[in-house]
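ugh finaly. both done.
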Amino acid sequence: MVTTFDTKPSASAPETSGGSGGSGGTGGPEGRFAIEIEHQVTLLSNEAKQEGVPIVGHVLEGMDNVGDGGGPVADPFAQFFSSGFGWMIDKVGFLRDAIDELDGDAAAGQTAVDSMKQASESLSFMARGHQADITSLQDWQGDAGEAYRASMKQLHEEILGLMHVVHGLGTLTAVTISMVITLRKIVRELVATVLGAIVIIMLAAVAAAVWTFGTSIAVGLAASMAAAAVTAVESARRITMLMDALGRQTERMVTLETIAEEIADSLKRYEKAAGLSTTQSSKDSDPQRWNSSRDKADEIGQDTSGRLGAVTPDARREFDQQELDQAKQELGR
């Protein structure tokens, strides 16, 4: 209802065919790697959607809208002031704390989710193109050709796996943002409702004040505080549930991150093939050699600066002596 990121595979997504290398890295039974990731991501996404049931009363899913989709809710305290009971804010102002705890920007959230959706679609397009390239290499025979095709099939599976991971991350992000924004709307409506009820209670209390010698106002204040307290407790209960749910969402995102890191590690085999394997810097791999090279560079720099006429201590002393000798000669004349 409120999640913009659909977890169903795109209709244009390629079939999860092709090998995964058979062994090692992201290998496994041919064509199963991406399917297994898709299954795992789907489970995580479905669990995430269900988090909204106890918090906001329904499953958080849908298209096109992150958040409640109903636009901003008017400040409930504005009605309080317009009704002439601004002096009650000191009594029930704690209700605003729940609203302030639930801050979220639906537009910014939607932009983030749309970016992930676009990235997922780009990976799907890339996988289709790559699969077409594999079939064009069937004439390459021999062990080298077989090894190359096996690696390319594995790459196809890895691209599909990343597509599912990004897609799942978009779903989890949309659900997470929706939980915050939707609960904010619910809390504001709760606060608006109780403030409206307080206005009615206090109007009745003020109207009866003359005949009750002011006792009705005290009773009205007590009733108002009770209603506000009930709303605050209900809001706090839901916010606590939200915090727990967000913790579980974080764990799900970490799972997706782990899958992505495993795929990224497997893709490093292409760095080695291209002679671009990642190594530590000379400083990290051999500190002693690094320091020795640095000292040698300093020596060369000092020697060069001296020969080029830079103001080194020795050059400075030589210059001062020349100045002194010249002054003596002029005095001797």
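ok and the 2nd:
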Amino acid sequence: MPPLRTALLQSSGRLGDTADNLKALDEAAARAAQAGAGLLVTSEMFLTGYALEIEDIARLAEPADGMSARAIGEIARRHGLAVLYGYPERDGEAVYNAAQLVGPDGERLANYRKTHLFGCFEQAAFTPGDTPVVQADLGGLRVGVMICYDVEFPENVRAHALAGTDLLLVPTAQMHPFQFVAEQLVPVRAFENQMYIAYVNRTGPEGEFEFVGLSCLASPDGVTRTRAGRGEELVFGEADPELLRVSRETNPYLRDRRPGLYASLV
């Protein structure tokens, strides 16, 4: 299979303005498709912005099949590429910090709810998800989804590795002073779990937060294949099934595991 050219949209969009953020997504999708990308990944809570009042998050939250989901399905179909976007998901009275993957035909492929909520703000605003591994098949790869803080738990990423995830998509709102996560932790996670990780951040000041950018695509050999700076940027990297195959043959981590020794972890 040919590599899956992946576009990482490092942007915070406009806080609280879903319509404007959909317009920005459409423009980014056009640029990504023109550059040959088959997948566009956005940041955590891209659809609405992150640093909202809790009541505004609840007001702007939409169901997984809501109006914005249909609009993004049309964007994906029109430009012929898959889109992963972060948004607040409404399900009855519950609101989740979610990310949804839409295929190049506009059909919804996967919806993930953040399982590990970071800090008092998120814990007050959202209900935690309870499904750690959500996957879909795209471009010959098994694609998994998680959100921001989730990737900092090694058990979470290892669960994806054991379930066969090839490319892990991680929209994030990673802030100062934790930039070491983007710079150091994410490439290590990719290496120790033998997968690609697309880690896509917000950027700049937003409310009380300062997002650090530094979005990246890390590969299973531990190399950062592409890295954004600190500003708004659209960067590209290749998720190559052949490199993945060779790396997994060479690196014995998953083969050399001894699960019987790890029972105390759970």
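summary for the 2nd one i guess: The first strand starts at residue 4 and ends at 10.
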